[in-house]
Design brief:
By secondary structure, the protein is an all-alpha fold. It is built from 5 helices and no strands. The radius of gyration is 16 Å and the shape is globular. The two termini are 26 Å apart.
Amino acid sequence: MSFIFVALGGALGAVSRYAISLIPLKTQFPVLTLITNILGALLIGFIVGITDKKGDVSPNIVLFWKTGVCGGFTTFSTFSLEAYKLFENKAYVLGGVYVALSVCCCILGIYFGKKLAMVIG
């Protein structure tokens, strides 16, 4: 049964990621992937925060959101490819900024997601 929760969440996450990729934004900087990863980090931080606070959250619900939705939604492989391409094209500063922002903002997203869970949950 747990596989079904992961699969359904993964489908929702993947469709959501695709929807964001359709936003008509043309720039050399991969801002939509950055936003997707930050939102995913915020969401997974919120899920962990709710789970820590409440303690009685169904494991299947956690699998749906954390493994399924967040796993299908975040785009680390796409992030890695885009960073690689920036470096390959000698856009070293832009690539460095992208990597630094992605890592720092996503860690902050987890922090704020957990804090938000404490306030809302």
